[in-house]
Amino acid sequence: MKIIFLDFDGVMNKNDTSDRVPHPFMKGRRVVGLEADIVKRVSALAVSAGAKVVISSTWRMFYKLDDLRALLLSYGWLPEAEIIGETPKDPPHRGPGLIIHGYDRGDEIQAWLTEHGTPEHFLVLDDLPTQFKDNHIQTNDSEGFTPQQVERAMQILGGMA
After folding, report:
1. CB-based contact 100:57 (threshold 8 Å)
2. What end-to-end distance do the CA atoms of the chain give, in Å?
3. Cα 28 from Cα 25, distance rounded (Å)
4. How many domains does the chain have?
5. pLDDT at site 25
6. What gap in Å lies between CA 128 and CA 8, rounded to an integer?
7. Is 61 exposed, middle or buried (0-12, 13-18, 19+ CB in 10 A)?
8. Three-state DSSP class for 100?
9. Which of 57, 101, 117, 144 is most buried, with most CB under 10 Å away?
10. Is residue 54 domain-resident?
11. Across the strands, what pairs with 100?
12. Beta 103-104 vs 99-100: how paired, if at all?
């Protein structure tokens, strides 16, 4: 199995993304949205590599998984790019990286790996550092996940399915 751990902000949008999506709990408000070309690029990567997607973005704290799937589809996510779940929201250990609610994204990914087993290949797409350096593409939040990063992502995922 191949897994892509997917962050949203700084990966599927950029600092200057003009699109807005409904705020998850403040009716009438909108927050930064997604870039359709990047959403399509990430889902095409998953399909080409034969990888399944696990959402690690903080968006999962505020939106239900089915709502995130629907949102991504509305931005051109390929339906055959399977989103199988999300990382835990309360992992048991703390480590290096961004700390949100007392833990960081790398801890969330490690907790998922501990629970589900480490796949043959996995990729972390995130604009923030994690402890998974050999499996991580750290995007730049001014560009998101770029076409130039696709080849490296395929290498990390072990090539085509």
Report:
1. no
2. 10
3. 9
4. 1
5. 64
6. 11
7. exposed
8. strand
9. 144
10. yes
11. 103
12. antiparallel
Helix H or strand E segment including 45: helix 36-49
In a domain, 122, yes or no: yes
Q: Is residue 161 part of a domain?
A: no
- Return the number of other C-beta atoms located less than 10 Å from residue 94's C-beta: 12
Residues 127, 87: Cα–Cα separation, whole Å: 17
pLDDT in tens, 120-148: 999 999 999 999 999 999 999 999 999 99
Q: What is the pLDDT averaged over residues 141-160? A: 94
Percentage of the chain lying above the pLDDT 90 cut:
67
DSSP 76-121: T--TTS-EEEE--SS-S---SS-EETTEEHHHHHHHHHHHH---SE
What pTM was estimated for this model as a whole?
0.88
Nearest by Cα to 95 from 54, 122, 131: 131
- CATH number for the domain harbouring residue 37: 3.40.50
3-state DSSP assignment of residue 151:
helix
Which residues is 83 bridged to in the sheet?
A: 53
Token readout for 7 is 């962050």
Distance, in Å, from the CA atom of 135 to the CA atom of 121, rounded to the nearest integer, reads: 8
Given this model, what pLDDT does residue 23 score?
65
